[in-house]
Amino acid sequence: MLAIKKARKLIEANPDDRNAKIIAGLVLALESDSTISVTQLYALDNKRFDLALEILDEWRLDRHYASKLRLLDASTVVQNLAATATNAPASQSN
Q1: Cα dist. 46→41, 70, 88 in Å?
Q2: In terms of CB atoms within 10 Å, which end of the chain has fewer, N or C?
Q3: Euclidean distance between CA atoms 7 and 50, whole angstroms
């Protein structure tokens, strides 16, 4: 099971649990590009600390893929613009 799915289940099942609150804080910090205290993460029990590390790993990987998709989109736009520019003079001369 993906760490993000595990985290969602933990938070939904135990919203008042200290570990769930810290995991939720981690997710919100990652999403908003804000911070979370390392001390808070160290307060997690071992199982939840491992989950936090899994979340960080998956989040970083997802960010890499999101950046790759943006790069692919930008590259496609540039290629289409270049193709349009190449075809424009030919169609104007006809």
Answers
A1: 10, 36, 63
A2: C
A3: 11
Question: What is the maximum span of the chain, computed from C-alpha positions, in angstroms?
Answer: 73
Contact 59, 30 (CB under 8 A): yes
Whole-model pTM: value is 0.70
Cβ-Cβ contacts under 8 Å for 56 (sequence gap 6 or more): 26, 30
Rounded to the nearest 5 degrees, what angle is found at the Cα of 82, between the Cα atoms of 77 and 84?
95
Please determine, for residue 7, whether its predicted confidence score (pLDDT) is greater than 70. Answer: yes
pLDDT tens digits, one per residue of 45-76: 999 999 999 999 998 887 777 776 777 777 88
Instruction: Determine the Cα–Cα distance for residues 25 and 28; give it in Å rounded to an integer.
Output: 5
- pLDDT for 78: 80
Residues in the chain: 94
